[in-house]
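ok trying again, last paste got cut off:
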Amino acid sequence: MEKIIECVPNFSIGKNEAAAEQIINAIKSVSADVKVLDHSYDPDHGRLVVTYIGDGDSLRDATYQGVKKAVEIVNLNYHEGVHPYIGAVDVIPLIPLRKATFNDCVKIRNELSKKISDELSIPVFIYGSIAKKPERNELSSIRKGGIEGVSGRMATPDGKPDFGPAKLHPTAGAVAIGARELLIAFNVNLDSRDLEAAKGIAAKIRAKNSSLRGVKAIGVELSSRGMVQVAVNIMHYKSASIKQVFDAIKKEAAEREIPIHSSEIIGLIPKDASFEGMKEYLKLENWDGSRILENYL
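nice, full thing came through this time. structure:
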């Protein structure tokens, strides 16, 4: 591949774990040039995250097939999961990697948005640093209030989607698509059932309340595991490292006399975000160092 772009769509599949394999197979079905590198499913979050790389047309077409399959088999009217969402395909980030630019990602973004809205009748919101509306730069501004919030705002002139109908798809909701830089999805599991404590810790470490630039966090319950979690997106890993985020959560948890049970990284991370001994230090689950992005590039 001359240019390499990463795509990390998040699918709201609820408790339907069997849907994961069908969606992944649909993504793989388009072209051998599209390489699925990683996928993770969490029944408490109700969420499937797939990481793959490819070039322009093949990446666009593979993503569309994944979206189409999700729309066929997921019905949000029966959704179960603690992670915020606005659609069966909640968000589709496009990240420029080797020899690719944001303009390359924007081209795919626009073509994919038109195809999804035209052929599947799903409203599409553009987010990220090159959003069509500045107020939609942050994904959280689109997702505010969840699927009900999106539905209500679409009835107003300022809340209309960038592509497609100004109403939710009856079973698949809406989707956000955007071009962005690499981020790290990092979850820390607390040996506690205290959801308010997890939410409090998440609030304390967010960028607006701490020195951790670009850190976003929420507290959620993992009912199947009998614990709570601080789920974090590290938007600028060179400014706020995984270690710094973990240390901040550990400090806040210690003040509440809550031990750290474990942590997990969702998807891949760049090599310069890792450090020696990180598995033991972070109490990482299912980590052997293979999910370093450069290993695949």
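cool. Residues 5-179 form a domain with the Formiminotransferase-cyclodeaminase; Chain B, domain 1 fold (CATH 3.30.990.10). DSSP finds nine helices and eleven strands in the chain.
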